[in-house]
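Re: that chain you flagged

S.,

Sorry for the slow reply, it's been a week of failed gels. I finally had a moment to sit down with the sequence you sent. For the record, here it is as I used it:
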Amino acid sequence: MDNSYIYYRIAWLLRTNFSIPEQQLSFYSNLRTDLLLSTHEINLLLYLIENHYNIQFKYGLEEEITKLNQLVKLVSKELNIYVTTETNAL
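Prediction finished late last night. Pasting the structure tokens below so you have them in one place:
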């Protein structure tokens, strides 16, 4: 799964759950200043992403993530770790 697919899926989550217009979204959007998400909303977004991709982020990540591209890279990393771990188990 490539980063553009992950970005578009997260952008879809943002549009449908937080009513953020598509014009406001870009790969480099700041979650707080550009998208005006609160810490609580970022936490909810992380929860939605965890459920969608069946992954789990570390606790307190909502304070560390500031930009959408960071979130995309983190999801990509988690998915690659999961695939690698599952492949090694076989």
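What I noticed first: The helical segments are 3-18, 39-53, 68-89.

Talk soon,
D.
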